[in-house]
Specification:
The protein has 364 residues and is an alpha+beta fold. The protein folds into two domains: 10-146 and 317-333, Aminopeptidase, CATH 3.40.630; 156-287, Aminopeptidase. It is 36% helix and 26% strand. It is built from twelve helices and 15 strands. The chain has helices spanning 10-13, 33-37, 49-59, 108-125, 159-165, 168-179, 190-206, 214-223, 270-284, 300-307, 339-346, 349-363; strands at residues 23-25, 62-63, 65-70, 73-78, 81-85, 89-94, 129-133, 146-154, 183-187, 230-237, 240-250, 253-261, 289-296, 312-322, 327-328. The strands form two sheets. Strands 2, 5, 6, 7, 8, 9, 10, 11, 12, 13, 14 and 15 form a twelve-stranded mixed β-sheet that branches. Strands 1-3-4 form a three-stranded antiparallel β-sheet, with helices on one face. α3 runs antiparallel to α8 and α6 (168-179) crosses α9 (270-284). The longest helix is centred in the first third of the chain and has 18 residues, at 108-125. The protein is globular and about 60 Å long. The two termini are 27 Å apart.
């Protein structure tokens, strides 16, 4: 495929004097960023300045958000983080540690122009590649580097109707949790963050991965939870947290970002109660969609679990453009059970936390 090149400014291609030329902005320098996002219904939490601030403060990534405005409205947006690592090199990622962050385009022509601008910027900044996580629309010419399942629950039907649409296994698990005495607590406190983090360290060890550093969750606490853009729900057994979930939200949209639990209490179905509590709360708040996050294509158990909550399934397309070859890359399939997984399964948590604190900045 020939190299992607910069296109003519939008004002020359589409004669609309009120439409701005594409601009590269840092949302952390614009106090009205969320007001601008609100002008486009395609926007969601991961486009927000709050998430940009978490990534910048935690790992030092530089926000470079490609935008087009028309009459004060946001008509195009491609969030990108400039990642610079001595270990893994320079690249543009949209966005690190984000399940899905689709660029916002008004049409196919606009998508092509903005793609060309991102590519030109990447060449100028010496990126190895740029990566988009959720480039589903207007991208037929861009083969996917990887693909995942997405599951979204429509909250508009209301509490009772939604509950009746759950599969029997989900309703049974919720009732079992109730009979087991599972209680839930909704919070935005640091104590709730710490309770989640302790459970998360155990869950990550089970999956053979180091946990994200505690400073990352401190940034989430400061920039998301304390700004009323996130919620933690704890599942309690005899007053002790055995399950926890972290949710982010902006406007009418919610995403289930992190979940963790104590494997010793799996049979009590606390996670089901945590999710049902969260769903009810978000319905009461007037939210309209509940995103269950991404799932690997080969994780059939997780897929069935999410489908059980009456979700609509779709595919998340990742795209990666390589500057050395001027071509789109195909990632190697993710596989579990390798030697690194076994190492982190056995590694003491105190050491695993240190490894996570050292490595995550370079992973992006």
């Amino acid at each position: 495929m020939p190299p992607l090149t910069a296109a003519a400014p939008l004002s020359r291609v589409n004669a609309q004097p009120a439409q701005s030329d594409p601009a590269v902005l840092n949302p952390l320098e614009h106090s009205d960023w969320e007001d601008l996002l609100a002008t486009n219904p395609q926007s969601g939490f991961f486009h927000s300045s709050a998430w940009a601030k978490v990534l910048h403060e935690s790992y030092g990534y530089t926000p470079r958000y490609f935008t087009v405005r028309e009459n004060g409205r946001l008509v195009a947006l491609w969030p990108m983080m400039d990642v610079r690592s001595w270990l893994t090199g320079k690249r543009g990622v949209s966005l690190p540690f984000t399940d899905e962050c689709p660029p916002i385009f008004s049409d196919a022509a606009g998508a092509k122009r903005l793609t060309a601008q991102v590519t030109e910027e990447g060449r100028n900044r010496g990126w190895k590649y740029w990566e988009a996580r959720g480039l589903n629309h207007f991208s037929d010419e861009m083969p996917a580097s990887a693909a995942y399942y997405s599951h979204i629950l429509n909250l508009a039907a209301g509490r009772d109707a939604i509950y009746e649409r759950f599969k029997g296994s989900v309703r049974t698990a919720v009732r079992k949790a109730e009979k087991s005495g599972i209680e839930t607590e909704t919070s935005r406190s640091w104590e709730a963050v710490n309770a989640f983090y302790q459970l998360n360290c155990g869950t990550r060890q089970k999956h053979g991965l180091p946990p994200q550093p505690i400073d990352f969750f401190r940034c989430i606490y400061d920039n998301v939870l304390q700004k009323n853009l996130g919620t933690i729900v704890l599942g309690l057994h005899k007053k002790q947290p055995i399950s926890a979930a972290v949710f982010f939200h902006l406007g009418k949209k919610v995403i289930y970002k992190y979940g963790a639990s104590n494997e010793m209490f799996k049979e009590l179905c606390a996670t089901n109660m945590v999710l049902w509590t969260a769903i009810q709360q978000f319905i009461a708040e007037g939210r309209e969609s509940f995103h269950f996050g991404r799932s690997a294509m080969d994780n059939e158990g997780l897929r069935k679990f999410k489908l059980g909550w009456a979700t609509e399934e779709s595919t998340i397309k990742y795209v990666k453009y390589d500057f050395a070859t001027n071509a789109f890359l195909k990632d190697e399939p993710e596989t579990g059970g390798g030697w690194t997984t076994r190492v982190f399964n056995l590694m003491p948590q105190v050491l695993s936390r240190k490894v996570g604190a050292l490595l995550y900045k370079h992973v992006a």
